[in-house]
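Supplementary material to the annual report.
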Amino acid sequence: MTIDCLVLGAGQEVGKSCVVVTINGKRIMFDCGMHMGYLDHRRYPDFSRISASRDYNTVLSCVIITHFHLDHIGALPYFTEVCGYNGPIYMTFPTMALAPLMLEDYRKVMVDRRGEAEQFSNDHIMECMKKVIPVDLKQTIQVDEDLQIRAYYAGHVLGAAMFYAKVGDAAMVYTGDYNMTPDRHLGAAQIDRMQLDLLITESTYATTIRDSKYGREREFLKAVHNCVASGGKVLIPTFALGRAQELCILLDDYWERMNLKIPIYFSAGLTVQANMYYKMLISWTSQKVKETYTTRNAFDFKNVQKFDRSMIDAPGPCVLFATPGMISGGFSLEVFKRWAPSKLNLITLPGYCVAGTIGHKLMSGKPTKIDLDKDTQIDVQCQIHQLAFSPHTDSKGIMDLVKFLSPKHVILVHGEKPKMVTLKERIHSELGIPCHDPANNETVSISSTLSIKAESSSTFIQSCSTPNFKFLKRNLNDKINSKELSSKEGGTSSMFTRRRSNPHVKHLNRNLDEKFDSSLSCGPELEVSDDRVNEGILVMEKGKKTKVVHQDELLLLLGEQEHEVRFANCSPIYFGSLDDTHVMDCISRKSLWLSQLSSKLSSELSDRNVQNFGEYLQVESFTLSICSKESCPYRTTNRIENESAAAFYCCSWLVTDEVLAWQIISILEKHDLSST
Amino acid sequence: MEFTCLSRGGFFYFPPCHMLEVCGFRIQFDCPMDFSALPIFSPVPLDFDVISDEELSTHPGNGSFNLENVSEEKIEKPLDVGSLIKAEPWYKIIKNLRLWNLSFTDIVLISSPMGMLGLPFLTRQKGFSAKIYATEATARLGKMMMDDLVAMHMEFKQFYGSEDDATPQWMRQEELELLHHALKEVAFGQDEADLGGWMPMYSAADVKDCMKKVETVRYGEEACYNGALVIKALSCGLEIGACNWTINGPKRDIAYISSSIFSSSNAMNFDYLALQGETIIYSDFSSVESMNDILNDTSGSLTENLMALSRNEETLANLLSDPAESVGESEKLSFICSCAIQSVESGGSVLIPINRLGVTLQLLEQISASLDCSNLKVPIYLISSVAEELLALANVIPEWLCKQRQEKLFSGEPMFAFVDLLKEKKLHAFPAVHSPKLLINWQEPCVVFCPHWSLRLGPVVHLLRRWCGDPSSLLVLEKGLDAELALLPFRPMSMKVLQCAFLSGIKLDKVRPLLKVLQPKVVMLPENLSRLINTNTESCTVFSYSEGETLRVPNLKDSLELEIAPDLAMSFCWRKLQQGNIDIARLKGELSLNCGKFKLFPENAHVATDQRPLIHWGQPDLKKLLNVLSKMGIEGSLQQSDAESSNVGVIRIHDPTEAVIEIQDSRTIISVADKTLCARIFDAVDSILNGV
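Predicted assembly:
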């Protein structure tokens, strides 16, 4: 079985995220984004590669959208309404609520202001959204009989989610964009540890490591404050959703603290409406914002007012949030044209701007003039502040996530090629996980897990879960050793390895002698281990389900009689002369010898339990008795040198204890009690 | 699996409570509070005069009250206000719960906010260590209701002064003797034997502590308990956040159906298709409770029902999501609205002590709409210590609401009308009747929503005292409450009383179609219900249960599913058996139980060196054995056996050293002094036997 991963967008670039994954025959499209930097056919993913006949409904099981950013959802109305995809589309509640705003905003910018022919209409957006099924976090959704999906909190923007998909035994996670550190209004990404064959992760900041965010937030506030204090205007071009709310919480809070009265404006009704959505979706924000919503909803901004177009040239300082971000056109461009020539004014730019936008031009170097088109040139005199915080995870966060999930394969998307290569090497060398960074329209195939299913008898399961305690006495010399061992055990159990049913060996160190002699603590220590026997027999019969049974059940299942194979041996052994002891009868002599042997073996085999049953000794399946027969069939040597001090012992064992048996026999061979 | 119904509950505010033992775990379903005995207490008196007055009011009460206590040997005075206990009330937990050692409970599953109210009684006990699961919305609503209860109860505490934890005065035997027999019956059961289960009210700290122990889940989220059980909450439509449960273990899949509503106008609809499992515990008593009302027309609906059953599955689904149910409900609500409008028009006020969030929110919308229609400027008050919190919560939980409400979110409107009503100052939320803001704003006539439905606690007591004499005012009560007793302290009542039953479960005629759709193998039905619906024709096994009895349900699965990791499967050494097409292999690995599934992983510790068969069967052929031995370079000869022990064959080995192989019917004994030869002979024996 394989997982095929066709990257239609965001392969070695940022923009038009779209990955089509085929797991065990089920095909899922993750994200359906558009590229902000292109205006031609390159702005959309090349959908024809999914199906040459363009019959998307039969080839795709579902479409999953991770969040409402245009580079993740921008092509969706086009795909459903123009290309004709009719199947299920999954996204989280906030994404479903906010996506139409985002799409409509973008469509307006394209059509109304740039005068382009529209790719999709407002009706298309509405029709498209009707096909969407909203999902809640952690909810397991059965798309069809075999395909299961689940959303996890990603923290990037409101409603951003990572998606887990599972078909049969093969499982994968597509992260979308995520943030591993909480910000003003959103929490950090959260996911369960699972067995994954594949992880597809974003890698926007593949090589960057960021420090604390608060310093950079202060920087931003200071820059804004300085600007308005000297009478300048601050333009914050953002998208309607996400960053705008985060910065607004930041500014609103700062205004309150500093008791500032300078107006903060939101450019259009759009953003104000977005705030209302944020208020209703407050359970998707960070813990802190959530906890306080009853007393005061964090998205009830006190100092924020609506902005009117006529106020662009009004005198006096102000702060303005205008859409779209990256100054790619629309109202933010209009304001930028007016405000850029003044040295007093400030433009703040997000951490990342797509190539081809004015934002990108402003960030690369310090231009004093920007050519808008061949007729228009803008004189740029204003200050420029680049926001150094971004709702994307940094390279440490990516590494942490990969390490946490420990998938069998990693695919990197949504990043810049050279940085991705570096990260790819790191994942491969540091974590030992094969990693790929396919370019657009490339397919990566990996093998997927297929575990074998069998029917298991309850006896087998019971035998596996029955504790099998062993009590070992340890000498002082071993004490240090055992302590080392236990600390090691502790180390591994606290590490996040696969959960196992077997509890690790437990050590109970008891110093028995402590009571009597505290200075000489050489008493035996007790070590308890629980080595569970997980042994069974797999039976495969043609035309029947594979079965796992316990050893004892096998013969019953097969209808056979057991044939025991034992080993036996009868050898001479020398005991001390019995002259000095009282004359004893045969039986008591035997039991004396047995107890002598018993104590000898106990001391030699410290980790075994030697049992004396009077008639015979037993260690595991090994039994030993004093043989008084004239001619034992198992006797291999009949010679005895000193008959008064010697006897024969007869022993028998099973193949399981072969090693042990030979060990005991060699002990007994060397044994000469007459010397002691 | 063992199932014990601890309490069948009664109506909406008192959900059933059960105990289930499955896969070695003990699971408790719901932990409601039993309010049935609360009416024996007097509501907080107006002032101390009332107490002294009470001594004087020994004369027969109001003529309207005629209890048939003539048959009593001792002629008792009729039940009146004075009969009620004037003390800080105690509350009851499920009486059967006391028979169980709570420290052995592993899991508590909470299905609705109402099923949570008794939880602090449990969690404050020593030794309680179970994991409590509830949906996020249930937990939040439940906490608010508990906080509200504590706050309302505080009024008693303040009035009577705080008593120490000792048994209160009224509970003493001699005091109880004096209690009116009607009250005794309510409080202690018909045989007056039920004396236990009384608890003093929990504190706010108890509630807080209890909430810390609650694990919240979302609809459809898989919670894995101890690796063995996968527990999932699924919407049931009864109330926002209320749920049914599925429990999947290695041995059994169980679906627990609590009171459910197919199409709700607030909460997310009953997600019944997700409950397809082999075992169903049916715990919706609502149809049994309201049996009396419909007993007459069941025969009709059942035949109709049978007709429906013969149709295909699609029609079944249609039958279940039949809109008639919700139409009936909205008719009920409009009727209440019209009554409310009448009262308001005639200058009276409307008091609605209903603690169902869903019904409250809907009535709020409908009444305000009707008021607008009739052009009445009448304020609506929501009075509760958690009123504001409740409204704030309702507007931020779209994930828990029905489709229609969610649509509103997606089209950018507030999900409930109260958001606008609050803005327009048509609706006011106040924490208490004496809050200063309320006093400034107060206008009559008005419409008031407030707790508590028992008419003993909270703002309703004060408002009822104010309006009980006003014939144009209206009190809306829910069915299931003993109105006679509940209204006793407010006699004489001139106020109009409207008592109505809201839909609070699966209707009787839908039970069979539902089971038909779910196709379980085993169904556990309440005894009364299984008698009502003819279950003989079902393909599944039906067990009926009754309160206080333990039901044993035999296991269906004889074997368990085991997954073997692919890397382990690679390492098997297969042996083909001489007989048939059977391959066998010895299996060694580490067993793990995760998410209710057994999995076998390779052992990481030591790789098994050459594996030798440990168990053998079959009959060894001596000649064959000699052959094999000689091929291995071991020479021996068959010793002629003695006549009597003909079933023992002995092979004597002389080369390379001496050895003996003794072969009996069911046993072979190898006796060699040399270790390596011993192993080789074993291999030879092994090759002529079957073994693994």
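Chain B touches chain A through 90 residues (CB under 8 Å).
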